[in-house]
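Question: what's this shape?

___
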Amino acid sequence: MTQQERDEFNKRHFDGIAKDRKTKIVCAIVIPVVGIIITVLIGFAQKSRQSDIASATVLESQSVGDFIDENDNGTAIYTGSIYAVDPVAVKGERDEYIEIRRKVEREEKIYNEETDKYETETTTMSNDSAHCDEIEIDDVTAKYSVFHSLPTKNETFSEGANSNKIKTTYSYVTAKVDGTFLIKVKDGEISSADYYESTDVAGESQKGFSIAKVLIWLLIAAIEIYMIVKIISATKILKKNR
């Protein structure tokens, strides 16, 4: 490589670093702005949800069916159990669920001569899932798709040696779920039913939105720190080669 070719190569290399640095500076400015926008949107959603909860009818002596009969459009809070009308299972399983996913993977330890280390190679052998079509809530049935945030349980089982094992992961919603549900009725039908663990729907909803905001800003902070470190590193490299 001639001196001219070396100089051209170095120029392209440092031009690339400068361009990448500029991009990261722009991202470092834009990301917090995006975070603010998302936070504002979450705030609007939070306010709307709290308004729905405040105006909802708490069903104590009245059934869900009676509420729908009397209100073509409205919001209600029901505490009790829901059931899968047509509980499902995946092949080879006996238990029944509202929803279930089973993922079977093979994990092998393979020696990498280049790095002189063992690396894990994962192969998906099967990935099966199923959900019921309808769910019974009190004295009515509704489509599975209108239920949101149902409590999901996760279990993982492994068989075989660590160097070559079969890992099976289950993610499921049991056929019966106890809890409190914020029900929205539109045109005489349940349009959505949001699950809450406790009867304090307002408090639980508030907590959920607050956690979402915190997680978003923790993610933004992590990205910002990464960007700043990279920008400083690129700046030092460019200063040394001026």
Summary: The two ends are 22 Å apart (CA to CA). The chain is about 40% helix and 40% strand. The first helix runs from residue 3 to 55.
